[in-house]
Predict the structure.
Amino acid sequence: MKTQPQQRPLLSFDWAVKRLLRNKANFGVLEGFLSELLRRQVRVKQILESESNSETQLDKVNRVDILVENEQQELIIIELQFNSEFDYFHRMLYGSSKLITQFIYRGGDFAKVRKVYSINIVYFDLGHGEDYVYHGYTTFRGLHTGDELHLTPAQRREFCMMEAGELFPEYYILEVKRFNDVAKDTLDEWIFYLKHNEIKDNFKAQGLAQARELLDYDRLSEEEKRIYDQVEDARRSLRSSIYTAKIEGRVEGEEIGRVKGEEVGRAKALKEMALNAARNGLSVAQIQAITGLTEAQIATLTNIE
């Protein structure tokens, strides 16, 4: 009985972001992802270039970002980060702040400050929590009444928002590793793809049907396949190096712990020996000869002068 050949995983989302989704004909994939995440329909107006789009050799396998402007002229930066960064939260804050200043004309009115969404797809544990999707936003609440600060009717008409906090950047964190592979809704279907580079036949999330077709490895030219495989190999090598460093560090730590444990055990044994010798009436000089401890150490351990 013949077995069906195993289907090759789809191209990774970071590859799509770097090389395919910047094409206007493929905006539907990004629009689908953003619509599912933000829980409203998003239409991409254009892909912008920001200073953060610059790429280093390490960036090619470690981080990717894309800057999107939607039809409401909001700025949406989508960043993929593969390796742990201790100060990543600060980087999120810096990135959104930089966009705000970068996309306001010199001397422009404050009212022209753009709404910014920072979407962070991370493949490592970021902070301590039980969920795998987090949403951060600003609210202004009264210290005495607990009420939320609303915009005035005129401000609402001008800014097309209801609450004062809506003017501020919003942050989304998708911790892909924490996803348990059970797709409970359409956003989970996207996260499943982000984790496994696979889209199941029964998935219905916006953008995934186009992604399944667009991100087929076999659609690549031979040169593109070569480059893609090189990037994947480099990423595997980087993960292997990090894993090796962790193992070596753990072994070194265990060795240090073992040695320290032996030192603690030896110190306890010497203390007992000194105490027993003192109880048996031995002098400090005699205890020193038996244990090798100094007079000061013996005095401390046995409380004898």
In short: The two ends are 88 Å apart (CA to CA).
